[in-house]
């Protein structure tokens, strides 16, 4: 044993990062009886998911929604109140992580991790450095907002998504660069605060991976709430006036002025400080590491999961990736079906979907039919005062097997799991027709959509069950 290995503490698994992927990976390894260490460079566990991304943004959304429903006089909830609520929820989640790591005898090492060999991790902190020797490594170091030289982020009036917790609710006008998931979610939050928003997106439509009908429904609702879309446009330069206003000059020649600008285009993986070359790995321009279907890198004992491997960059998926990676590392059979991962977008209203889109089925030549239930037809939708939401099912015309579910409206991210389960078991829409759902609930949408789909088949003259 060389001097480096002699000085290093041995672990069966070292996990770099304590976010969604790292947390679930570490817990899974510990449950398998392995000696595990988690290296986290921040004093607060949980990574971006808890501290700057998922939890803060969803907490902010919920706080704003509750305020907006209280009446017009309360719509401008104070920035300090929002920050306090976010801190309360995030801190509680951090405590949950700390407790889980303690209960599972996982060593938490605060410091910056870097490779100094194939199996050796160096952990550097203000107190000094120490080494870990790992049989297996899971890289789950997460990501940060990507920056653009043309947009000088100053964390005051030109901010990225990590600084959204400091958004001032007294801003009268906001510009958001980026019509992806993060940009759209924050545009909806600002609109709910009665802040006029302009969204600049270089693509011809927002959320181009979402079912077109669902994305159009969201766009319509956002426009009705005061959001302006500048689609097919790119920002050429961002400047600040002497009065502190922010100006975004577009390549088309347009100039958009606002009190603040949020840059929400892409993420940069946190791999630049890992010294990947020391273990024979490399990252692309966005810092992402290539892996196989088992989340192995080109070094079989080193795995990567979460934002460091790119799309879909969802906390829920990262959790599963971390678990699957660790199970594979220790020879535990596991079944995971990425095609059945649900997608949730916390816009206002929410969007969620699972399975195939109409575009995918059309391209594949699959004979399908649709069934739609509008929230306005459902008693629960009326009670919630959500009369714009809808649930759409896609099913095979011949076998009636459920192929996809797409929802926009209140509770979409919860409602989607019913469809997810039916697709997983290769069920047909008859399971919805023959199921009694609680009344009044949004779950009834599945039955109404299934009956609507059967009516479409009946209208074609094909011999199918007569639906109401």
Automatic annotation (TrEMBL):
UniProt key word NADP: yes
GO molecular function: dihydrolipoyl dehydrogenase (NADH) activity; flavin adenine dinucleotide binding; NAD(P)+ transhydrogenase (Si-specific) activity
Entry's localization field: Cytoplasm
Main location: cytoplasm
Binding site for NAD(+): 178-185, 201, 266
The entry's keywords: Cytoplasm, FAD, Flavoprotein, NAD, NADP, Nucleotide-binding, Oxidoreductase
Cofactors required: FAD
One of the Pfam families matching this protein, by short name: Pyr_redox_2
A biological process from GO: 2-oxoglutarate metabolic process
Matches recorded under InterPro entries: Class-I_Pyr_Nuc-Dis_Oxidored (IPR050151), FAD/NAD-bd_sf (IPR036188), FAD/NAD-binding_dom (IPR023753), FAD/NAD-linked_Rdtase_dimer_sf (IPR016156), Pyr_nuc-diS_OxRdtase (IPR001100), Pyr_nucl-diS_OxRdtase_dimer (IPR004099)
Domain FAD/NAD(P)-binding: 11-322
Protein family: Belongs to the class-I pyridine nucleotide-disulfide oxidoreductase family.
Function: Conversion of NADPH, generated by peripheral catabolic pathways, to NADH, which can enter the respiratory chain for energy generation.
Protein name: Soluble pyridine nucleotide transhydrogenase
Organism: Edaphobacter modestus
